[in-house]
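> forwarded from #structure-qc
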């Protein structure tokens, strides 16, 4: 189970966050001030830290950040979100920054990315993956917009982080935005900021993610889910390198590099009218596609060893089970199954029975059943269209369809009634 240190001085907020985090699968350790947080960091290890900036004592959240071990991602919370504080936090090593009041689903989604448990590198030696990593390193050396594609769970965010970390902008902030997790009516102000009075509850001006990412990188995850209105506004930013806050008129220069990722085929979406083609070409100045895990099965033993390090080992036969799975959820699914099995094993060897791999035969049966249902619906539609054209005359409809009268009757009854 992922472990998180929650540092929040307000009891009600702390209780609400703890409940939400535990429901999301986190093992939560609470601290109400920086002193307790530092003691927790000294005695335990965590997969992530979530801390308020404004704890008792000026900016004590930044003190917690400075004392967090290297490699442990930290997300900061504050009700006083200024661009100066955000930049200070990012330069000090924070992985993300969120202002109160925030959308809880957005917070959990971002934390899930921070504490993904993959480590900070994509693991694998498969030639296809090695080629991807080399391409990512080439992308890091330039300043083009990069679009990373691949199925869910393949490690797109890790690859984007690698590009930022190896780029000339590595000293600047890395600001992730999950376009699918933030409600549409909030996403524009999250991206571009808002002026005081721009909407109900905007009691002060606030910076957006593009401002926070100045000198660094903004990562637009799940870009395929971006609302079409915002697609147009993002395109103007990419074309003109400037934007305005919600409710504002002042042009703000965009000083952030844009990296984006999607598990959807954006070019196909653009042809269907669901995604702007001009935006696609702006985002995809440099493209990288990560192969699914099923296409690099030789990496499964390496990944298994990484995820189980210090947690247990696989019994004979268990690895064969892993190698024979198609992994529709990719590396994320493999990790979750292995960590769950490690808990079930209680320190003993992990057997194949402990591996809760998907029932692929059942999945195939479901797919076949769904295919049969769709085929049946299409067949009935054709028959009813023919009957309509023949004014209900079944004999004429059978001739029109090129089938016998008895076959027509049987197909109207359905396979369960013949």
């Amino acid at each position: 189970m992922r472990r998180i240190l929650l540092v929040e001085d307000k009891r009600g907020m702390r209780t609400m966050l703890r409940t939400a985090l535990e429901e999301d699968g986190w093992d939560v350790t609470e601290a109400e001030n920086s002193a307790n947080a530092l003691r927790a960091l000294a005695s335990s290890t965590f997969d992530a830290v979530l801390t308020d900036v404004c704890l008792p004592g000026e900016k004590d959240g930044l003190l917690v950040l400075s004392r967090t071990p290297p490699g442990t991602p930290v997300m900061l919370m504050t009700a006083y979100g200024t661009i100066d504080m955000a930049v200070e936090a990012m330069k000090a090593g924070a992985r993300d920054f969120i202002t109160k009041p925030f959308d809880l689903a957005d917070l959990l989604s971002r934390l899930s990315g921070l504490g993904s448990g993959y480590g900070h590198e994509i693991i694998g030696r498969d030639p296809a993956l090695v080629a991807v990593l080399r391409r990512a390193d080439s992308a890091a050396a330039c300043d083009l917009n990069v679009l990373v594609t691949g199925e869910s769970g393949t490690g797109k965010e890790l690859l984007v982080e690698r590009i930022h970390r190896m780029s000339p902008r590595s000293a600047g902030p890395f600001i992730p935005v999950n376009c699918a997790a933030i409600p549409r009516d909030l996403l524009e102000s999250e991206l571009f900021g808002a002026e005081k009075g721009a909407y109900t509850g905007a009691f002060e001006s606030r910076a957006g993610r593009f401002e926070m990412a100045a000198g660094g990188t903004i990562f637009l995850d799940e870009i395929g889910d971006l609302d079409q209105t915002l697609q147009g506004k993002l395109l103007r930013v990419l074309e003109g390198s400037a934007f305005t806050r919600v409710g504002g008129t002042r042009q703000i220069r965009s000083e952030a590099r844009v990296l984006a990722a999607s598990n959807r085929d954006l070019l196909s979406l653009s042809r269907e009218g669901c995604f702007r083609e001009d935006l696609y070409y702006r985002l995809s100045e440099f493209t990288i596609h990560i192969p699914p895990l099923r296409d690099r099965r030789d990496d499964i033993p390496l990944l298994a060893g990484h995820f189980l390090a210090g947690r247990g080992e696989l019994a004979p036969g268990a690895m064969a089970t892993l190698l024979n799975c198609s992994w529709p959820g990719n590396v994320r699914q493999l990790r979750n199954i292995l960590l769950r099995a490690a808990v079930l094993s209680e320190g003993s060897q992990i057997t194949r029975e402990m591996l809760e791999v998907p029932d692929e035969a059942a999945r195939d049966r479901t797919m076949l059943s769904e295919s049969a249902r769709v085929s049946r619906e299409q067949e009935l539609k054709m028959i009813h269209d023919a009957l309509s054209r023949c004014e209900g005359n079944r004999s004429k409809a059978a001739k029109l369809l090129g089938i016998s009268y008895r076959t027509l009757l049987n197909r109207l009854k359905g396979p369960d009634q013949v």
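QC bot note: The two ends are 53 Å apart (CA to CA). The first strand starts at residue 2 and ends at 7.
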